[in-house]
Amino acid sequence: MTGLLSQATATPPVDGPPALGPAVSRRRGSRRLRYALTVLVFLLPSAVPLTLFVLVPMVAAAGISLTEWNLLRPAEWVGFDNYVRLLTNPETAAIFWHTLYYILGYLPLVYVGGLLIALALNTALRGRTLFRGIYFLPVITSWIVVALVWRWLLNPSNGVVNTVLGFFGIDGPGWWTDPAWAMPSIILASAWKDIGFVMVILLAGLQAIDPELLDAARVDGAGPWRRFFSVTLPLLSPATFFVLVISLINGFQVFDQVYAMTGGGPGGATQVVVQQIYDLTFRYGRAGEASALSWMLFIVILAVTVIQIRGQRRWVDYG
Questions:
Q1: How many C-beta atoms lie closer than 10 Å to residue 288's C-beta?
Q2: What's the pTM value of the predicted model, to 2 decimals?
């Protein structure tokens, strides 16, 4: 008995799991390698075009932004002169303000409109599948076609909108020919085109809400408005967050409708950032300055997106 106790006492305690043998370590390393290669194979179809058409052009634009280049003669190194010129130019502040003006008008209009349509189509409405297709049709329509149609609708002299307003004795504005109404014209066309996309996203969010939660609120005496603001809207916050992020990114990059409807006019009233990048590159031959402006826009979009992602913890409810 004493010998057994002495043997147990002499055996050192084990401080951790037993060391793996070389063969086991090699097998685990081989499995990790196969897993990494499998993931790489599935990512390649997206990673290759992403690298070639997004990351490489971004790096190239960063290099071009430090040069003076008119697309014809060799580029000349100028350092950060392009950035300094843009930051000290009042026109830069003006085009960013025009872009912000567009976003402030577009975002509430497209969200509220999309939400109202989604709420209507979330009921037992006859033919709602047909209405979904009709409302989504502008989303898949070419922006040039949409812009030209709205340019015709808002024609100050013989457009449909001013003709209808004149029937009620209202003098219609100059729309895209008037500096004060040119940006609202673009906002209306943009909201009309994108409202179907917002409707689909919000409709999916509404259909994901458990009906029992609304029934419980109804049993507790909550009216329609109370149920909407206390149950529906909070549970719809993930879809709302997605719509806000995507819409803000697209809003900062607005170009097609501006180019087709006003070309940045009249008098520069609708000149936005991407339109300015286009003009600097292809009209004025200042590719270095245009690249610097594109990187400034990228930094602004990145900052706004980061703020949104960090702020979503306070109001987005993922259940």
A1: 26
A2: 0.85
Distance CA 307, CA 304 (A): 5
Q: pLDDT, tens digit, for every residue of 38-54?
A: 888 888 888 888 889 98
State how far the alpha carbon of 308 is from the alpha carbons of 26, 244, 248, 316, in Å. 44, 9, 10, 11
**Cα separations (Å) of 210 from 43, 128, 151, 239, 263?**
35, 21, 43, 15, 47
Torsion over CA of 136, 139, 145 and 146, rounded to 10 degrees?
A: 80
What is the CA 129 to chain-centroid distance, rounded? 26
What was the pLDDT predicted at 22? Answer: 65
Q: Among 1-10, 263-272, 294-303, name the one with the lowest average pLDDT.
A: 1-10
Compute CA distances 196 → 120, 136, 191, 261, whole Å: 13, 4, 9, 21
CA distances from 266 to 5, 107, 116, 236, 272 (A): 99, 23, 33, 40, 12
